[in-house]
Amino acid sequence: MKIDLEILEKFCEDSMSKAESEAFEKAMQTDAELSNEVKSYFLSRSAIANASNERLKKHLDDIGQDLDLAYDPKTRFLQYMLAAAGICLLIGVGWIMMYYFLRPRTIDEIFLSYYQRPDVSEFSERSLGSDSSLLIWNTALDNFSKQEIHKASGEFEQLTNGQSDIPFSKVYFMLAICYLESKDYEKAIAAFDHIRSESNFTYAMQYYKALCFIKMDKKQEAIDLLNNIKHQTGHPYGKQAKRLLRIVNKMP
Fold first, then answer.
1. Residue 95 C-alpha from the chain's centroid
2. Residue 209, number of CB atoms within 10 A of its CB
């Protein structure tokens, strides 16, 4: 699907009609290039805001150097006041840009801003033999990487039906991610619930499960799970959970 900046802005600013928005979201499900372009647009907006803040900070530093006044109590006080004003201006501009340009406004924007596709490059399993489960697993990972989610989910499902050399929780994690990307959130949550509490995937499961609740508009379930993540010391998704909590608490 060919799109231009105006269409991207309309989608991200939630200014499309309901019919236009539904058609755009449907196109994103089947067009990986379009989906990646939307994600890149969100990232570029964030990068522009960060760059603007850095330029403003440098400008304020330059002003401070130009105001190299001879020391006396009055001029030193003026320098302090100018520095304080510059810091307040920098913080104010940052908050304004975050609020008006980077603040996710819809459930889809929240998801796009906080969903990160798992890097499956480290998930491959290798064996000197010809174990069928390993072949299915690696084929499923390849299909997932190529955005062929229906094929990948079918192959991951095969590995849940019998004996497999692939760790149980690892299979269900990837199966749940496939369901999530297919927008079958109920199935995704059911698959996440199969992951054992002692598994290496427990932390990731909690975070992605919270994203499922957000997409299902189950606000309280999302808040409860994000609070759980937030209060776990050293949780790798702790910072994301705190930011998400601030957003989800403001959802209607």
1. 20
2. 23
pTM of the predicted protein model: 0.60
At position 137, the amino acid (one-letter code) is: W
- Which among 35, 41, 12 has a CA at the least distance from the CA of 106? 12
**Tokens 């994000």 belong to residue:** 226
Tens of pLDDT, residues 81-127: 555 666 655 555 554 444 444 455 688 888 888 999 988 877 776 65
Nearest to 42 by CA among 28, 55, 54, 30: 28
Closest residue by Cα to residue 114 from 41, 31, 42: 42
Q: At what angle do helices 202-215 and 107-114 cross, to 10 degrees?
A: 160
The CA distance from 35 to 27, in Å, is: 8
- Residue located via tokens 């299909």: 143
Asked if residues 12 and 25 have their Cβ atoms less than 8 Å apart, the reply is: no
For residue 141 the two structure tokens come to: 């990972």
- Domain range annotation of the chain: 5-103, 114-248
Q: How far apart are CA 179 and CA 216, in angstroms?
A: 13
Element (H or E) spanning 61, and its range? helix 32-66
CA distances from 229 to 70, 103, 202, 240 (A): 53, 22, 11, 9
Q: Whose structure tokens read 């570029």?
A: 44
Residue 200, C-beta contacts closer than 8 angstroms, at least 6 positions apart: 169
3 state DSSP class of 105: coil
Q: CATH fold of 114-248, please?
A: 1.25.40
Dihedral angle sign, alpha carbons of residues 237, 248, 117, 36 = negative
